[in-house]
Amino acid sequence: MTTTPHPMLSVAPEVRDALADGRPVVALESTIISHGMPYPANVGMAREVEQIVRDGGAVPATVAILSGRPTVGLSDDELEMFGADQGIRKVSVRDIAHVVATGVHGATTVASTMRIAALAGVQVFVTGGLGGVHQGGHDTMDVSADLTELSRTPVAVVSAGVKSILDIGRTLEALETLEVPVVGYGTDEFPSFFSRSSGLSVPMRVDTPEEAARLVRAQLDLGLGSGISIANPVPAEHEMAREDIDGVIAAALADADRLGVVGKDITPYLLGRIVELSDGRSLETNLALVRNNARVGSAIAVALAALA
Ligand code: PSU
Ligand code: MN
């Protein structure tokens, strides 16, 4: 399938050409760079992931908002800027219009990356972890717009699941209600980001890029409307023991509570605090799972392009 991007987007020539030819493209997000990992590991990760996507036979397209322009495909200097500049705004879908109207930079979350990817005609998106229902979210109503977006934008999102800074069970319940297929990649269990297990099962499973691509194709061709969550567990040799990471997460949640961190700041705060409290151990696992997602996501994009 070939596509013409929305006219308000800035699409890198390489990405535009690939889309016009129906060649595989993989979208990547920028909040994971600006708010998900410390500098300079974040920039190293962004570059490495782009290279893994290329090695897998697809064109990488990191999404962000640059001086008010939704952009699909960042340059190397732009990746560096999004990693180094501490002041870049975290932009979910509700923030897009304001950032565009005021002409500033914005780092896109899973939700806003999905939306901009869809406006460009990109169907596969690789990230680390999804947002979801926060701990206590059934009371505070802190539920990530990533879930809303998955319900309304037909993009396949490859992640390592949801970490237990969130309420994983309620996140899966919400995804069911929101009509989002949650697909285990080579697993029957929904992964919990740092670990392969969560104790919760996935409703469906695929074992190869081709199987995943057929599922994505069917979802798109039927116009079902919602996105797809492809949950790809961290490789066993890089996973953290549940009891190790759970203690770190509990301590980070307690710190957030004590400091009164809420709203859009809570997820970045917790991610940063987890890296500190684990002495960087969690960062190694995070990097490993993102690399693995890039390998799987590019293979799915290649298989999807071959079906067209
Ligand atoms: N989880 C991670 N790493 C991340 C994020 C979540 O392990 O970088 C980021 C993603 O950009 C995700 C966003 O879309 O946090 C969710 O933020 P919120 O909970 O405010 O919706
Ligand atoms: Mn929130």
Automatic annotation (TrEMBL):
Reactions catalysed according to its record: D-ribose 5-phosphate + uracil = psi-UMP + H2O
Residue numbers annotated as active site: E29, K163
Note accompanying the cofactor annotation: Binds 1 Mn(2+) ion per subunit.
Keyword Phosphoprotein: no
Source organism: Phycicoccus sonneratiae
Its job: Catalyzes the reversible cleavage of pseudouridine 5'-phosphate (PsiMP) to ribose 5-phosphate and uracil. Functions biologically in the cleavage direction, as part of a pseudouridine degradation pathway.
Pfam family, one: Indigoidine_A
Stored InterPro entries: Indigdn_synthA-like (IPR022830), PsuG (IPR007342)
Record keywords, A-Z: Glycosidase, Hydrolase, Lyase, Manganese, Metal-binding
SUPFAM superfamilies membership: Indigoidine synthase A-like
Cofactor(s) named in the record: Mn(2+)
Domain of life: Bacteria
Family indicated by similarity: Belongs to the pseudouridine-5'-phosphate glycosidase family.
GO MF terms held by the record: hydrolase activity, acting on glycosyl bonds
Positions contributing to Mn(2+) binding: D142
Name under which the protein is recorded: Pseudouridine-5'-phosphate glycosidase
Parts forming coiled coils: none
